[in-house]
Design goal:
The complex is a heterodimer of chains A (378) and B (326).
Chain A lengths: L3 H7 L10 H10 L2 H23 L20 E2 L5 H8 L6 E8 L2 E7 L8 H6 L4 E9 L5 E8 L2 E2 L11 H37 L1 H15 L3 H12 L3 H28 L2 H8 L4 H37 L11 H10 L6 H28 L5
Antiparallel strand pairs in A: 1-6, 2-3, 3-5, 4-5
Chain B lengths: L5 E14 L6 E15 L4 E5 L6 H8 L7 E6 L2 E2 L5 H7 L3 E4 L13 H12 L5 H14 L16 H13 L5 E5 L7 H18 L2 E6 L2 H7 L2 E6 L2 E7 H6 L4 H8 L6 H6 L30 H5 L5 E4 L2 E3 L6
Parallel strand pairs in B: 3-8, 3-9, 6-7, 7-8
Antiparallel strand pairs in B: 1-2, 1-4, 4-5, 9-10, 10-12, 11-12
Helix pairs in contact in B: 3-4, 3-5, 4-5, 5-6
The chains are: A alpha+beta (378), B alpha/beta (326).
C-alpha cells in the first residue's frame, strides 16, 4: 500500500550525497567576491606572518648600528656613496687616513697612510663593523706607513626600512603579525569555547539558573576593561599570556549572550522536543542539537571578533600594557611609528597598512559569512 | 479484553500565567487539561478530537511526560510515570514515541536523515555498531516508503509528506508500543494525508502498536480510530467507539462537530442540517463554573450554568458528560 515500489523506480541505486546547510552556505560564500578576496588577503598575510620571519635574512632582534632609521628602499644598503663614511667611522680611532678607495661591485680596495707604522691588526677594527667581511691586507709599503686592504661589503636589503634601533622593519612587521594574529585567533577561540558552553547551558536550562548565570555576566560586564587589565598587570606582571586571559575574559561575555539568545529560540522548536521524546540526555541535546544550530551567528561574530581583539591588543600595546620587547606586535610597531612619524614615516605606514588590510579582510569575510549563513536576511 | 497498556486518571495540566501589571501581577492557572481519564488497550487507536486550544496536544505531551502533569496519574503497565525520576523516565521512552504536527520543524536541519532516524537507537542501544544501526535505518526507511539511498540527505531536501515519513521512522525505530500522533497529517495536503494515515494503520497492524491520534479533523480520526474522545476546554465531553460516536452522538458538542463534517455527495450536503455553534471558546483562564460548554450549547438550561456534569456511561462503552443527553 505504501509507495516503496514507486520510489525504487524513480530513484536509481546508490546512496545520494545530501547537501547540508553548511555546504549550501559554503557555495554561497564562494560566489561572494568580496569575501573570497578577503579570504585570499588573509591567507597571504597569515602565511607571510607565519613563514616570513623564518625566510627573512634578518633576525627579528638583529640590530644594524649603521642603519638606524634608514628609509624603505628596494636597493641594497650600504650604497656606494655611503661606503667611505662607513669606513671612516670604522677607522676613526686608527689615526690613519684613507688615500684611495675603489669600489668594484662588492669588492672594496682601500689604501691607508699614516704618520706612524700601521698595525696590521687594523683589519679587526674594520671587521668589527658587520658590513665588511673577508678583510685582507694585500700590500704593505716597506716603511709600513702605507697599507692596502681588500674587503667584501655585505649588502643588506631593508624593503620596509629599519626602526629606531636599526632593526629590519619587514621582518618585524611580519613577526608582529604573527603575534597579533595569534592573540586575535587564540583569544577568539577561548571566548568561543567559554561563551558557547556558558550561553547554551544558561539558555537551555533556563529559569533561575539562567537568571543567575546571566547576572554574573552582567556583573563581569560592568568591570571597566582598562581597570581590569591594569589590575592584572599589577598582580601578575606583564606577560603575553595575560593578554589572552584579559581579552578572553572580556570577550566571551558577548558570545555567551548571543548564544543564549539563539538557544532560547531554538529550544522551543519541535525537533528539540522530539529529542526529549527520544530520551536524549540534556548534555547530548545541547551538544548535538542546540550548538550546531547556533553556530551560524557565532561564526559571523567570530570573524568580527578577531579584528576587534587585534585592535584591542594594539590599543593595549600602544599604551604600553601589551607585548614587551623583544617581542613585537602591530600595535607596538604602530606605537613606535607614531613616535617617529616626522623623521621616519615608514615605521608607521607599513605596520598600519598590514593591520588595516587584515581588519578589512576579516570584515569582508564576516559580511560574506553572514550573507551565506542567513540568506533570508538578504 | 486484557489489561490496558496505559491508564490515565484525572490528568490535569495547569500552566501558571502572569496577569496584571509588573508590580501587582499575580499568577492565574490556565487549565489546559482538567481532569481527563481514559484507558488505552494494546493495539488500539484512541482518537482525540477537539477544536484549537482545547488541550489536545498538551494532553498528548503530558501522557509522555514531555510536559509535567500538575496532577493525576499516567499508569503505564501498572507503573505511574508521573512519579518516575528523569533517568527512569528516559529509559521508558523507548516504549512510547511521538509524531509531530509540523513535519519539517521536528527534524534537526543540520543532521542527515539517517542520523535523525538513528538517534533513538544511539540513545537506547549505545553499544550497537554503526553498521548495524545503518542497516536498521535503511530497512525502516523502506518500510515507511522512503528510498534507503536517501539516507545521507538533509531534511530540507524532502517534501512535507516525506518529512512526516522520516518522523514516523524515527518514532518506529526502537519498536515502541505506543505512539502519540499529534496532528500528524494537518500540515499535509489531502492525497498525502491518506498515504500517511494508511502507513500508520499498516505499521500498527504489523507491530501491534497502540496509537493516540490527536486531530481536529473528524474524517481522518474516523478513518483510523477504534475509539474516539471528544475534548472541549480541557475536559472530556464524550468517549465512545467510533461507529457509536458517529451514528449516535450523545453530547450536543459532538453533534455539532459531526454536523460540520462535509459530505462527499452534494445533494446530501445540501440537505444536511448543520448545527452552528455561536460564540467562542471561553478563556481557559476563567472557565465557566458549570458545564464548560454551556455558553455555546443549544440545549442549555439553568442547571448547566451552575453544576458541572460528570462523564457517565450512557450505554455500553459510551460515556458522555451532559445533563441533558438522552
Amino acid at each position: 500500500m505504501t509507495t516503496v515500489s514507486q520510489f525504487e523506480q524513480t530513484v536509481p541505486g546508490g546512496e545520494i550525497k545530501g547537501r547540508s546547510l553548511w555546504a549550501d552556505a559554503w557555495a554561497r560564500l564562494r560566489s561572494n567576491r568580496a569575501a573570497v578576496a578577503g579570504a585570499i588577503v588573509l591567507a597571504i598575510i597569515g602565511l607571510a606572518s607565519l613563514f616570513g620571519p623564518m625566510l627573512s635574512p634578518h633576525d627579528v632582534g638583529q640590530v644594524y648600528r649603521s642603519y638606524i632609521k634608514v628609509p624603505a628602499s628596494t636597493t641594497a644598503y650600504p650604497r656606494e656613496a655611503e661606503i667611505p663614511d662607513l669606513l671612516k667611522t670604522a677607522l676613526r680611532r686608527s689615526r690613519a687616513d684613507i688615500t684611495s678607495l675603489d669600489v668594484d661591485g662588492d669588492l672594496v680596495t682601500l689604501t691607508l697612510t699614516a704618520e706612524r707604522e700601521i698595525d696590521p691588526r687594523i683589519t679587526r677594527s674594520v671587521e668589527r663593523n658587520a658590513d665588511f667581511t673577508n678583510v685582507q691586507i694585500i700590500e704593505t709599503s716597506p716603511d709600513g706607513l702605507s697599507l692596502t686592504m681588500q674587503m667584501e661589503v655585505t649588502r643588506s636589503y631593508f624593503l620596509f626600512g629599519t626602526d629606531a634601533n636599526g632593526r629590519d622593519l619587514l621582518t618585524r612587521t611580519l613577526f608582529g603579525g604573527r603575534i597579533s594574529l595569534m592573540i586575535g585567533l587564540l583569544a577568539t577561540f577561548v571566548s568561543l569555547i567559554i561563551g558557547v558552553t556558558y550561553g547554551a547551558t544558561a539558555g537551555f536550562i533556563g529559569g533561575r539558573v539562567d537568571s543567575v548565570m546571566m547576572r554574573i555576566v552582567d556583573v563581569l560586564y560592568s568591570i571597566p576593561f582598562m581597570f581590569f587589565v591594569i589590575l592584572l598587570m599589577v598582580f601578575f606582571g606583564r606577560n603575553i599570556i595575560l593578554m589572552f586571559v584579559a581579552v578572553g575574559a572580556v570577550e566571551w561575555l558577548d558570545m555567551a549572550r548571543i548564544v543564549r539568545g539563539q538557544t532560547l529560540s531554538i529550544k522551543r522548536r519541535e525537533f528539540i522536543e522530539a529529542a526529549h521524546a527520544c530520551g536524549v540526555s540534556t548534555t547530548a541535546i545541547i551538544r548535538r542539537h542546540i550548538v550546531p544550530n547556533t553556530l551560524g551567528p557565532v561564526v559571523v561574530y567570530m570573524t568580527l571578533l578577531v579584528p576587534k581583539v587585534i585592535l584591542l591588543e594594539s590599543f593595549l600595546s600602544f599604551l604600553g600594557l601589551g607585548v614587551q620587547e623583544p617581542m613585537t606586535s602591530w600595535g607596538v610597531l604602530i606605537s613606535e611609528g607614531a613616535n617617529n612619524i616626522v623623521e621616519a614615516p615608514w615605521m608607521l605606514i607599513f605596520p598600519a597598512t598590514f593591520l588595516a588590510l587584515t581588519l578589512f579582510a576579516f570584515n569582508f569575510v564576516g559580511d560574506g559569512l553572514r550573507d551565506a549563513l542567513d540568506p533570508k536576511d538578504r | 479484553m486484557n489489561a490496558p497498556l496505559l491508564s490515565v486518571r484525572d490528568l490535569k495540566v495547569h500552566f501558571p500565567i502572569r496577569v496584571g501589571g509588573v508590580l501587582q501581577g499575580r499568577y492565574k492557572q490556565l487549565k489546559a487539561v482538567d481532569g481527563v481519564s481514559f484507558d488505552l488497550m494494546p493495539g488500539e487507536t484512541l482518537g482525540i478530537v477537539g477544536e484549537s486550544g482545547c488541550g489536545k496536544s498538551t494532553m498528548g505531551r503530558a501522557v509522555l511526560q514531555l510536559i509535567k502533569p500538575t496532577q493525576g496519574q499516567v499508569i503505564w503497565l501498572g507503573q505511574d510515570l508521573a512519579k518516575l525520576g528523569a533517568k527512569q523516565m528516559r529509559a521508558k521512552r523507548q516504549d512510547m514515541q511521538i509524531i509531530f504536527q509540523d513535519p519539517l520543524a521536528c527534524l534537526n536541519p543540520r543532521i542527515t536523515v539517517g542520523d535523525i532516524i538513528a538517534e533513538p537507537l544511539r540513545t537506547f542501544h549505545p553499544d550497537m555498531t554503526s553498521a548495524e544501526a545503518k542497516s536498521r535505518v535503511q530497512k525502516l526507511m523502506q518500510q515507511v516508503g522512503l528510498h534507503p539511498n536517501m539516507i545521507n540527505r538533509y531534511p530540507h531536501e524532502f517534501s512535507g509528506g516525506q518529512c512526516q515519513r522520516i518522523g514516523i521512522a524515527r518514532a518506529m525505530i526502537v519498536e515502541p508500543r505506543l505512539i502519540v500522533c499529534d496532528e500528524p497529517v494537518s500540515a499535509l495536503d489531502v492525497s498525502i494525508q491518506a498515504q500517511i494515515i494508511n502507513l500508520l494503520r499498516d505499521l500498527q497492524q504489523r507491530f501491534q502498536l497502540s496509537l493516540i491520534f490527536i486531530s481536529h479533523d473528524l474524517s481522518v480520526v474516523r478513518h483510523i480510530s477504534h475509539r474516539i474522545m471528544v475534548v472541549y476546554l480541557g475536559k472530556v465531553m464524550e468517549v465512545a467507539d467510533r461507529d457509536a460516536l458517529y451514528t449516535h452522538p450523545r453530547h450536543p458538542y459532538t453533534k455539532a462537530l459531526i454536523s460540520a463534517v462535509p459530505l462527499p455527495d452534494p445533494d446530501q450536503e445540501r440537505a444536511k442540517q448543520r448545527i452552528v455553534l455561536s460564540g467562542d471558546l471561553p478563556s481557559p483562564l476563567n472557565p465557566p463554573p458549570g458545564c464548560v460548554f454551556a455558553s455555546r450549547c443549544p440545549i442549555r438550561t439553568e442547571l448547566c450554568a451552575t453544576t458541572p456534569p460528570v462523564l457517565e456511561e450512557r450505554s455500553t462503552d459510551h460515556h458522555a458528560a451532559c445533563h441533558h443527553s438522552e
